[in-house]
Amino acid sequence: MSTPTKYLLQESQMPKFWYNIQADLPKPMPAVLHPGTMQPISPDDLAPLFPMSIIEQEVSTEREVEIPEPVREVFRLWRPSPLFRAHRLEQALGTPAKIFYKYEGVSPAGSHKPNSAIPQAFYNAQAGVRRLTTETGAGQWGSSLAMAGQIFGLDVTVYQVRVSYDQKPYRRALMETYGARCVASPSAETEYGRRVLAEHPDHPGSLGIAISEAVEIAAQRDDTKYALGSVLNHVLLHQTIIGLEAMEQMQMADAWPDVVLACTGGGSNFAGLAFPFIGHGLRGGTAPRIVAVEPSACPSLTRGKYAYDFGDTAHLTPLTKMHTLGSTFTPPGFHAGGLRYHGMAPLVSHVRELGLMEAVAYNQVDCFAAGVAFARAEGIVPAPEANHAVKGAIEEALRCKREGKSETILFNLSGHGHFDMTAYQNYFAGKLKDESYDERELAQALSGLPSVPA
Ligand SMILES: Cc1ncc(COP(=O)(O)O)c(C=O)c1O
Description:
By secondary structure, this protein is of the alpha/beta class. The protein has 18 helices and 15 strands. It has helices at 52-59, 69-75, 87-93, 114-126, 140-152, 162-167, 169-177, 191-199, 207-220, 233-239, 241-252, 268-282, 300-303, 346-353, 364-378, 384-403, 421-428, 439-447, and strands at 6-7, 17-19, 64-66, 83-85, 98-103, 131-136, 155-161, 181-185, 224-226, 259-263, 289-295, 305-310, 319-324, 358-362, 408-413. Helix 2 packs antiparallel against helix 4 and helix 10 crosses helix 12.
């Protein structure tokens, strides 16, 4: 019998707990600082923005956190997600490597983002919250929270980065289909948005600005909280269901990865796949190489500074220690909108500082070429963000070919690109450019990093 192409788990095999890597790390994370006092924050400081159950997850160091049954019930709409063996891509590349990918594009919103949107909406609804505000880049997170809000009876307002709002009109239609309101950011709805527009009426927006707008509204109203689609510890925790399932599925395939890859915007799908494998290594198991793949136009892990910085542009959020390009840095308008964030998840940054992972950066044209090669071999059209992971995996497979090694490669195909076909059209028309960031702007953004007492 030939080797299977898909490895599927039963609904009853879906994980019942998320995995918290903080329990296994050799060193705790640096403290999170209050933006006013520059002193470590307390859980109460976060209460205007998040319900206490989410704050508890944010600061938890327990290894296992139970996934509530109502959340698992919604997850059954698409989880467990499939693990594929990329036989046809292996053949197309002529590599002796075995390539596996975990496919998160099977969710209703088309990516891994509902893995955190569903529990965040659940905990907020449980706490009596009526409305959620959020930011979105590509629109994947916004549509995921829109769906989750509809399921748990919450009103959702999404501030979408202007350049993506214009590039992807159908994402907005999807958010509206789920009953949410989607506003281009910077907007005239918030004080901060109006300030940005007064200085730059054509500002393309950034995730940092959209976060400021969403936080500003949530902080003003008692019935409203804020939800973040990446970066924070609880979001990374929710995404570990990806890696926990993948571990079971690799065992079904009688295989174990030598290298694990995922793209990184704020770090959530990467952490989701990689952290359970890193934890396995930290507890004495076989440790694969772990590689984060980021865009060269917004390279927080490979070019950023490991320093305390704000999570948003208006400096409303607490300060965290992370790899950052500076909170005022506006990345160029390349198509992987979900990767256009100035910082990296503090937990991913900490794991990088501990030497437990590597990072590489690729430009967008090369990533689209990889995505097209993948689509022609495997059929699935990846989201522009996921193309970075595909590119990373193909590079590893070609290295194996050069070195004559049959290593096992596992990567996360974080979403499909059905709403991103304009970007593919531009690629085929030769209109896609490798937009690089402005070195002077980067230097300026980095020189403006906040000074924090030692
Ligand atoms: C398909 C897809 N992959 C990856 C990302 C990057 O986010 P993160 O690094 O949090 O996984 C996004 C963000 O919107 C996305 O839509």
